[in-house]
Every structure is written in C-alpha cells, then in structure tokens.
Automatic annotation (TrEMBL):
This is MARVEL domain containing 3. The keyword Cytoplasm does not apply. It comes from Oryzias melastigma. The chain crosses the membrane at residues 112-132, 181-201, 213-237, 272-296. It comes from the Eukaryota. Its main location: membrane. Keywords: Membrane, Transmembrane, Transmembrane helix.
Length: 313
C-alpha cells in the first residue's frame, strides 16, 4: 500500500509538471493516440484526387506523344542532333558514291571510245599547229661580219641580193601553206569539242535519262566520219598545190645550191601524222556510232523491264 501511494504521488507530480510546461499536451496526446489507427476522410479524398489527376496527366502525355513524329515523341535534343548529323553524313556518302558511279562511265566501251576521239583530234590539232606556227625564214647572220660570218658564213651563207630573195620566198611560202593547216585545226578543234561534250553527257548519265540522245550521237558520228574523209581529201590536195607552187620550187633550188636540206617540196612528218590520225578518227567515229546504237537498244530494253516490273508490282 505505501508503495502504491508513493507511485500515485509521483505520477501526479509528473502530470502537473507536464501540464505546466506543455499546455497543449492534451491535444497532442489525443492526436498522437488517434494517429496510430485512424485515417481521416479528407486524407483519403486527397489521395483519390491525386490518383485521378496523375491518370489524366499520363493520358494527355500519351496522346501528345502519338501526335508527334517518331523522332520528337521521346527524343532528346542531343539524340536529334546525332540523328541529323548521321543523315548528313549518309547524304555525303551517297553523293560520293554517285560521283564514283558516274566516273565509272569512263571505263565503259563508249567512254573509252570517246576518250580516244578526244586524243585523236587533239593530236591532229597539234600536228597542224606545229608547221603553221613555224615561220621559218632565212636569217642573214653572216652579213653582220666578225664572228657571225665565221660561224654562219662561208659557202653555206646567202649574202646580198640572194639573202633578200630567200627571205622573200620564205615569207611567201609561209603564207601559201597556211590554209590547209588552218582548215585542219578548225575541223579538229570542232570535233574535239564535240567529243568532249559527248563524254560529259555520258559521265552525267544524260543518255540514260533521254535515250534519243544516243541516236543523235550515232547520226553525228556517221556525219563526222564522212567529214573526216572529205577533210583529208581537201587537206592533201591543198598540200599538193602548196608543194607544187613555183615559190616552193624556187625556194628549194636556192637552198639546195648552198647545200641545205629539209626544204624539199614534199609532205613532211607532221603532214603525214595528221593524215594518219585523221584516218584513225574515221574508224573510231564509225565504231562510236555502232556503240551508241547498241547502247540505245540496251537502255530501251532496260526501261521496258523496269516499266513491266512497276506495273506488276
């Protein structure tokens, strides 16, 4: 009994002490006691409202993601930049492959034939340009006297009136021989430009897009082959007239009188080379026309196959 009374006194003293220091202790103890096994109604309502709001937000986000393109629905800016850079690099690689594919045309039969046409006409122009640009003409260095007469004088030198006559004959002969070389350079340059144009069209695959270009090329090649024949005939006829002229004969005799060689009135190596390359040009252009016709047939057949496949698809 004395112990129970002592315990009650201690509990009363502790209760008075807590009520004095913490006046809201009662409310706190009440709430603390109820919070263990009690859920307020407003808390339950708030949680249900939050659940409905979260479901609504998820539904809106799903609908927005469906409306956006695939790369915008769930892609970050870094991933979009990476994809754009990848597309850019793929485009450059495709252009590079297309350029290499176009250059492969040079190794085809038509490409090699057209390159041969270019070089043949270029060599023809060079063969005609060398004698055209060679003015020649006698240089009367012996008349200067001294060391010039020692090196360039003697029995092989023209002096006085003979030197003036040789200079005059050289100038006249150079004017006479110009027309055939000008004709050959003009025709060779025109055929060279045509061959370069056809080669460029082939590299850019224009005949594949417009096959009638191949028929036009074949027709022009035949006409150029015939033009080569006419050109070579007039070229050698003009050279024959030049070398049979009295000016050329007199010039040759004067140079022979002094023991000089290389001034004969006959065709030289450049003239013969120009004629030979002209004959090769005739053969190459005829072969080019045949190849163009074959290419036209191949392209037409390929396009028909593609059209039938597309129709069946």
């Amino acid at each position: 009994m004395p112990q129970r009374e002592t315990h009650k006194q201690r509990s009363n003293v502790y209760a008075e002490h807590m009520s004095r220091d913490y006046p809201h202790n009662g409310e706190h103890s009440l709430y603390h006691g109820q919070s263990r096994n009690y859920k307020p109604k407003d808390v339950e309502g708030r949680s249900s409202t939050d659940d409905r709001r979260a479901n609504k937000n998820r539904h809106e986000m799903r609908s927005v993601s469906q409306k956006l393109p695939p790369y915008q629905g769930n892609a970050t800016p870094s991933s979009m930049f990476t994809e754009s850079s990848v597309y850019h690099s793929e485009g450059e690689q495709q252009q590079h492959r297309q350029a290499l594919y176009n250059l492969r045309y040079i190794l085809t039969t038509r490409g090699l034939c057209q390159i041969t046409e270019v070089f043949l006409n270029l060599i023809m122009v060079i063969c005609a340009g060398v004698p055209y640009s060679n003015n020649g003409g006698y240089r009367d260095l012996a008349s200067l006297g001294g060391i010039y007469y020692y090196h360039f004088g003697g029995a092989g030198a023209f002096t006085g009136a003979d030197a003036e006559r040789v200079k005059q004959l050289d100038q006249q002969f150079h004017q006479i021989k110009k027309p055939p070389y000008v004709m050959l350079m003009a025709c060779g340059g025109a055929f060279l430009a045509y061959a370069c144009a056809m080669l460029a069209l082939g590299v850019f695959r224009v005949p594949y897009r417009w096959p009638p270009v191949l028929l036009v090329e074949a027709l022009l090649n035949i006409l150029i082959s015939l033009s080569y024949i006419v050109l070579l005939v007039f070229y050698f006829l003009e050279l024959k007239d030049v070398y049979s002229n009295t000016v050329c004969i007199e010039r040759e005799e004067m140079y022979k009188s002094k023991g000089h060689k290389g001034f004969e009135c006959q065709v030289n190596g450049a003239d013969i080379a120009g004629g030979l390359f002209g004959v090769l040009g005739v053969c190459v252009f005829i072969f080019g026309s045949v190849v163009a016709v074959r290419a036209f047939r191949s392209v037409r057949k390929l396009k028909k196959q593609q059209a039938s496949e597309e129709a069946n698809f």
